[in-house]
């Protein structure tokens, strides 16, 4: 009996020892995976740590009851602390559309907005202007809305004080996003009176060196207005209403088409086809609804024209030329 008990005790001890070893191996595996995940997280954050774009913009009044943003100052602070001033790449006048801001995933943006409009003492709604952006990350104090909407505070520039907005282009925010006023006049914003622009977030994982020009086209309810960026020189050029677009032969150009207003549109680039993003379909026209966007790249091989083929837009003459130099 003692031998049996001894054998059973020995077997029990061996079984307990085996369980301890298994538990130890399991815990080691869990900790290894946790450490790997933490290391991967730090690696991703390190890779995505980007530049700081420090920007100053005015909101100004234009003729005809329109308003516009104007670039005042633009400095890029690198990860090593180096600074590059690119203000001269932008127009020194207020423009419709407003300045195009081009960044990369991982970058931070700090925009100080200054009110440069004759104050309307009879209409307090007129005395506040903001920047509300789509697509990227920000804290609630950078939403660019009013206290009755965000239940926090008025996030506006006024005649007596500027306002600073901070954005973060986190992983997954790559794309073309509109920014616009959200507070002037109706408290829903004065983007229909010119206060709008675009933020382009390039993916961190893909080089865009082959893109020679960016054409940002805003389809509003009665016209197409544009902004061009030359990626070779870095120069930003306002194209105004139903503009002529120009490109060098055999260069790759990227179209960013954004719909503002309340109408539906049908953008078409005649005699060209491109891949509809997210599909394998070749298209030459794209339906775009309010606040929707469409981004595509073509190789400029020949001159053509673009237009909004929606019935009311055709009647309004919403079209322009695409001229390719030989």
List the helices and strands and how they pair.
Blueprint: H1 2-48, E1 52-61, E2 67-77, E3 83-85, E4 101-104, E5 108-116, E6 132-133, H2 147-150, E7 163-168, E8 175-180, E9 196-202, E10 211-219, E11 224-230, E12 236-241, E13 245-248, E14 251-259, E15 265-269, E16 274-275, E17 282-283, E18 285-288, E19 293-300, E20 304-308, H3 311-315, E21 319-325
Parallel strand pairs: 1-5, 4-9, 10-14, 13-21
Antiparallel strand pairs: 1-2, 2-3, 5-7, 6-8, 8-9, 10-11, 11-12, 14-19, 15-18, 15-20, 16-17, 20-21
Describe the protein's architecture and organization.
The chain is an alpha+beta fold. The chain folds into 2 domains: 50-205, Sandwich (Immunoglobulin-like), CATH 2.60.40; 207-326, Immunoglobulin-like (Sandwich). The protein contains 3 helices and 21 strands. The protein has helices at 2-48, 147-150, 311-315; strands at 52-61, 67-77, 83-85, 101-104, 108-116, 132-133, 163-168, 175-180, 196-202, 211-219, 224-230, 236-241, 245-248, 251-259, 265-269, 274-275, 282-283, 285-288, 293-300, 304-308, 319-325. The radius of gyration is 27 Å and the shape is globular. The termini are far apart. Mean pLDDT is 88; it is low at 1-8 and 38-46.
Residue runs with pLDDT of under 50 for 5 or more positions = 1-8, 38-46
**Order of helix and strand elements from N to C terminus:** HEEEEEEHEEEEEEEEEEEEEEHE
Q: Mean pLDDT, as a whole number?
A: 88
β content, as a range?
35-45%
The CATH class designation of the largest domain is: Mainly Beta
Proportion in helices: 10-25%
User: How many domains comprise the coordinates?
Assistant: 2
Content-based structural category? alpha+beta
In the CATH scheme, what's the topology name of the largest domain? Immunoglobulin-like
CATH level-4 homologous superfamily of the largest domain: Cupredoxins -  blue copper proteins
Radius of gyration: 27 Å
Between the first and last Cα atoms, what is the distance in angstroms?
103 Å
Number of strands: 21
Provide a count of the helices: 3
Overall geometry: globular
Strand order of the largest sheet: 3-2-1-5-7
Please describe the biggest sheet, giving its number of strands, its sense, and whether it closes into a barrel. 5 strands, mixed
């Amino acid at each position: 009996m003692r031998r049996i008990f001894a054998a059973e005790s020995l077997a029990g001890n061996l079984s307990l020892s085996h369980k301890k070893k298994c538990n130890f191996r399991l815990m080691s595996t869990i900790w290894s995976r946790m450490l790997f995940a933490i290391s991967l997280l730090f690696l991703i954050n390190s890779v995505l740590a980007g530049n700081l774009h420090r920007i100053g913009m005015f909101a100004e009044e234009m003729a005809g009851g329109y308003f516009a943003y104007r670039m005042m100052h633009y400095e890029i602070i690198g990860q090593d602390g180096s600074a590059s001033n690119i203000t001269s790449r932008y127009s020194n006048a207020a423009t419709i559309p407003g300045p195009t801001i081009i960044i990369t995933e991982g970058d931070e943006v700090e925009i100080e907005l200054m009110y440069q409009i004759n104050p309307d003492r009879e209409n307090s709604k007129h005395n506040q202007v903001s920047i509300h952006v789509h697509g990227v990350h920000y804290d609630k104090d950078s939403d660019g809305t009013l206290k009755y909407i965000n239940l926090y505070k008025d996030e506006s520039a006024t005649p007596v004080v500027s306002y600073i907005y901070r954005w973060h282009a986190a992983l997954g925010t790559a794309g073309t996003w509109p920014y616009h006023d959200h507070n002037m006049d109706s408290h829903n914003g004065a983007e229909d009176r010119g206060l709008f622009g675009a933020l382009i977030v390039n993916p961190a994982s893909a080089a865009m060196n082959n893109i020679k020009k960016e054409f940002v086209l805003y389809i509003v309810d009665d016209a197409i207005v544009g902004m061009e960026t030359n990626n070779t020189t870095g120069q930003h050029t306002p194209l105004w209403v139903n503009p002529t677009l120009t490109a060098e032969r055999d260069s790759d150009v990227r179209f960013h088409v954004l719909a503002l207003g309340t109408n539906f549109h049908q953008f078409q680039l005649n005699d060209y086809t491109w891949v509809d993003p997210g599909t394998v379909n070749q298209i030459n026209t794209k339906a775009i609804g309010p606040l929707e966007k469409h981004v595509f790249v073509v190789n400029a091989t020949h001159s053509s024209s673009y237009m909004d083929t929606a019935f009311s837009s055709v009647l309004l003459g919403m079209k322009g030329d695409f001229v390719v130099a030989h």
